[in-house]
DNA sequence: TCTACGGCAGAAAGCGCTTTCTATCGTCGC
DNA sequence: GCGACGATAGAAAGCGCTTTCTGCCGTAGA
């Protein structure tokens, strides 16, 4: 039925061992023999049995990329970048060829753990966890435990956009400086003269949410400005849309609204428009991430640009072992303030 | 080092066979024995060796989802839906537990084939190909050959948004009626009174591109209206942006522009705005897909809504074997015309 | 009481590959 | 011209699991 290594060996008149060596290319094989084997492979249309190979070699060529929401371009861009970095890693002859697969956790801790177990089962070569994590201590501990077991078993673990696990030396981490980004954004608004700023935050129990919010508060505190109303929601348009009513109810005098990310900001803009309020005339709005559509929003969104693509590529390289983890701790990747048309000095 | 089945067996004082049976749950095991085994599994923190298991059982729990561009919400939404349908399929005790992984081909035929081979290596349980395909005959043949080999080997193959391979009975296919959608959209424009309509198409060699464009032409032909200028580009914002100059150069009297999809339409709108043209005052613009941001564009985009989420879910179910493929050929999934503010009657 | 049978558990044979260890051959140095 | 060594190829022992084939034991039917 299926063609096996021995079939190829028989046809090439060599031993299975030789075929294996030709395919893996880590042992000297005479050029003539190699050609004969390759020809047989070709003729038989042979495909290596992955499980058998992984079993015997105790490793696999799978790299798992875990993301919170694959439908969100924030993750899509990073995952895409990582995946191409990993795919290209297959530079040399053989061996480097890895299969990067992305797994969608939907932000659910259980699914995150399930995927990790599944990846562990498969003896994945590496795992990349993208995006902020839940701050529930139980979940954190469970994840950390699982990751360190995997690391022990030889799986490379890379964190991208998620705080490093304290004390885990096995893990490479790339973290975004969400706090500084939040600070910078709010400082910009303060600089324009805003003093009544509403905030639409993400889910309360996520690191990303907390850090951005903390940055916002730090900027406020530094300027001696009182904190405005804050509403928590999901990282989606609907949350932004819904938050506006609440924010305005809590402080009708708001002159600016900061959103947890660009998608939320879009929802905020929509709601504002529906109320007949102009942006930035009546209220300024700012987002975070600088997703591709943000420049096309009307008005174009002021936001904080995160190097999503670059970070994805770096995460991919770290996972491949092509690039070494920055020694001596990871300094966070900064975000860049991008000022566009959705923010302006408050009226009057 | 690593805990194996035998370790568990030893601790539970049963044979490895029994442990395997408990874990797979497809053979009668006395309740007391089962509990003993489960307890040992727990205590030893045992994780099944996937490769070994796949090797012995000649199947794996991997489901591959191939997409053209994971950073594009069009694919993100479908992939996400498919993945959750597959994840939930793990309803019953054991066995149903599948790992859905998404693979980003970047629209490259080679990478598509590479991923397929890798998935074939892993003896994937199923493969879902999402989105239109390249129309190159060589590639089509290669893909079809590979898919049918995989199908023979027991991998379920599902096509979602891609035309079925003629004569391949193994393959379930879900196709979007891009042609009808294109027709409907252009008819809408014609109905408003437009007769000089530009078209920004996707890459020329993709099925999706061709079908949408054909629908457009059919509508034009049916109304006896001459075809306007057409420009091909990628399915991204930049292409839409760049196309405007060319379109307007070819016919400065254009009153409407139809874009290959919403992302392209956004680029078109941006370029128009930069030229000081108002939408829909000076020109109407229409997109395709109805991605989440389209409703928030200003003006909100007229477009054709495709049931991305539903289709993804169905594709996932088909891959799981939970849902049977529609017998007697697949009738295409229709798109729904969504009229919003970016289209209006041409001026004067 | 004896036989038959159903319900469980174990033994053991692989699944298809990798990899150590061993064997062979040709060639080089003296 | 002889022993040794480098370069290749083969034999065979697993990797950790699944599953068929047996076997045991207890109960039910006669």
Automatic annotation (TrEMBL), chains A, B:
InterPro entries tied to this protein: HTH_LacI, LacI/GalR-like_sensor, Lambda_DNA-bd_dom_sf, Peripla_BP_I
Source organism superkingdom: Bacteria
One Pfam family this sequence matches: Peripla_BP_3
SUPFAM superfamilies xref list: lambda repressor-like DNA-binding domains, Periplasmic binding protein-like I
Chain positions covered by the region annotation Disordered: 323-348
Transmembrane segments: none
Keywords carried by this UniProt record: DNA-binding, Transcription, Transcription regulation
Stretches assigned to the HTH lacI-type domain: 3-57
A single GO molecular function term of this UniProt record: DNA binding
Entry annotated with the keyword DNA-binding: yes
CDD domains: HTH_LacI, PBP1_LacI_sugar_binding-like
Name of the protein in question: LacI family DNA-binding transcriptional regulator
């Amino acid at each position: 039925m299926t063609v096996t290594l021995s079939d190829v060996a028989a046809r090439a008149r060599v031993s299975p061992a030789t075929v294996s060596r030709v395919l893996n290319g880590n042992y000297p094989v005479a050029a003539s023999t190699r050609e004969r084997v390759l020809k047989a492979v070709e003729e038989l249309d042979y495909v290596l049995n992955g499980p058998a190979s992984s079993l015997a070699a105790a490793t696999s060529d799978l790299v798992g990329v875990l993301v919170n929401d694959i439908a969100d371009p924030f993750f899509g861009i990073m995952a895409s970048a990582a995946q191409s970095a990993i795919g290209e890693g297959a530079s040399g002859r053989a061996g480097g060829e890895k299969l990067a697969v992305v797994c969608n956790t939907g932000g659910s801790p259980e699914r995150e753990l399930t995927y990790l177990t599944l990846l562990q089962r498969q003896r994945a070569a590496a795992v990349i966890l993208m995006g902020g994590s839940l701050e529930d201590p139980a979940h954190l501990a469970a994840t950390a435990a699982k990751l360190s077991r995997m690391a022990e078993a030889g799986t490379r673990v890379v964190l991208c956009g998620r705080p490093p696990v304290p004390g885990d030396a096995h893990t490479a981490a790339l973290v975004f400086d969400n706090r500084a980004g939040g600070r910078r954004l709010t400082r910009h608004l303060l600089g324009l003269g805003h003093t009544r700023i509403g905030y639409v935050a993400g889910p309360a129990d996520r690191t990303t949410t907390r850090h951005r919010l903390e940055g916002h508060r730090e900027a406020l505190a530094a300027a001696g400005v009182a904190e405005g109303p804050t509403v928590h929601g999901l990282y989606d348009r609907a949350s932004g849309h819904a938050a506006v009513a609440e924010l305005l109810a809590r402080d009708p005098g708001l002159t600016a609204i900061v959103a947890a990310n660009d998608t939320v900001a879009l929802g905020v803009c929509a709601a504002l428009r529906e109320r007949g309020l102009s942006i930035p005339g009546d209220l300024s709005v700012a987002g975070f991430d600088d997703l591709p559509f943000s420049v096309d929003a009307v008005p174009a969104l002021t936001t904080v640009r995160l190097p999503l693509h670059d970070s994805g590529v770096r995460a991919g390289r770290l996972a491949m072992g092509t690039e070494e983890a920055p020694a001596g701790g990871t300094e966070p990747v900064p975000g860049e303030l991008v000022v566009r048309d959705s923010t302006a000095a408050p009226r009057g």
